Every structure is written in structure tokens, then in C-alpha cells.
Amino acid sequence: MSRESKGPSRARSSQEGWPKWMYFAVPALVIFVVVGLWWALFYPPSEAVESGVAAPTRPVGVAQPTQSPTEQPTLAAFAPTATTTLPTLPPPTPTQEGAAADQPAAPEGPREPLSIGDMASVCCTDGIGLRMRSGAGTGHPVVKMLAEDKVVEVVGGPQEATGFTWWQVRDEVGTSGWVASEFLRKQ
User: Per-residue pLDDT tens for 35-44?
Assistant: First the structure.
């Protein structure tokens, strides 16, 4: 009789398993951790996105050298890694109120007016380059930096925003965005 009473209780304990809420909590936790790790690895810091300059990164899985202030560096501590050094751009100077110090000062003087279909080159940036943005205005994210003397095709505009006249342009690889007309010269 003792065997009969133990039999049903064993069957009941093996059928119970996890509580029902665990079938939802564990997958949700796994998804949360995977998304968090993905975001941490692939999204740049916010200040790099706003400035348009890529933030320097360290290679994943490579130990970084640590050294106390009194230690002398050794060659082993600074083993070569497969990283790319990105050029840094000097900060632009503010030119107008409300322009958010995003573009260098454009020279004053008459310019040939632009129109859709024209070819234009980037000028007057003192070698800094011109920010191509996703929309007309300095509040839009930077799509690409255009080098001084870069030739682009005017494909849209003009629009007035944040104290500048903006034209939509496309470069030779097909990237399009908006740039301030003060930094374009008709070809």
C-alpha cells in the first residue's frame, strides 16, 4: 500500500516543472540581454553622432595595456592591434546666432545662384569640410562629411532653415543630403 501512495505523488511532481509564468519570463530576459549587448556593441556614443565625427573605438576582445604612473612602458604592453586611426577635425567656429556653431564662416560677396541640376563644389570651409545632413537645418543628423572642393549635383531645394539656405545634393557615389548654400560654388 505504501508503493501505491508514492506512485501518484511522483507523477504529479514530474509534471509540474516550471510555474507557468517562467515560460514567459525566461525568454523575455534572454531577449532583453541579447538586445542590450547588441546595442552596447553597435551603437556609437551620442556625442559622436551629434558631432558627425566617428568616435575612436578599441578592438573587441583585445586587452588594453594598464600601467601604474611609476612603471616604464614595455613593448609587450603595447602590442600592435588591428585598429584604424580616424582623423580628428578641428571644431568649427560659430558664425550666426542659432546656427549651433555647425559651419565655418562663409565669405561674403556675390555668388552665382544655384538651381536644380547644377553641379557645385564645396568651398570656403578652410579645409574642415561640409556636413551633409538628412534634412534642411542644423538639427538634422549628419549623413556624411564632404571634403573641400568635392563636386556634387544639386537635386532639390532651396529651403530656408536655421539661418541658412539649404540645397539637397547628391555626391558621385549616390549619397544625398542637405547642405548650406553658403558653402557651395556653382561649377
Answer: 888 888 877 5
Q: How far is CA 103 from CA 90, 125, 132, 151, in A?
A: 11, 8, 11, 18
**Which backbone phi and psi does 122 adopt, to 5 degrees?**
-75, 130
Burial label, 131 (beta-carbon count in 10 A; 0-12, 13-18, 19+): buried
Query: Which CATH number applies to 119-186?
Result: 2.30.30.40
22-33: string of b/e by CB count within 10 Å (b at 16+)?
eeeeeeeeeeee
Q: What are phi and psi of 84, to 5 degrees?
A: -110, 130
pLDDT digits (tens, 9 = 90+) for 82-104: 555 666 666 655 544 444 345 44
User: Distance from first CA to last CA of the chain, Å, rounded?
Assistant: 102
b/e code 133-162 from CB counts within 10 Å (16+ = b): beebbbebebbbbbeeebebbbeebbeebb
Domain limits of the chain?
1-43, 119-186
Residue 23, classed as helix, strand or coil, is helix
H/E element, 31: helix 22-42
Q: pTM higher than 0.70, yes or no?
A: no
Mean pLDDT of the chain: 74
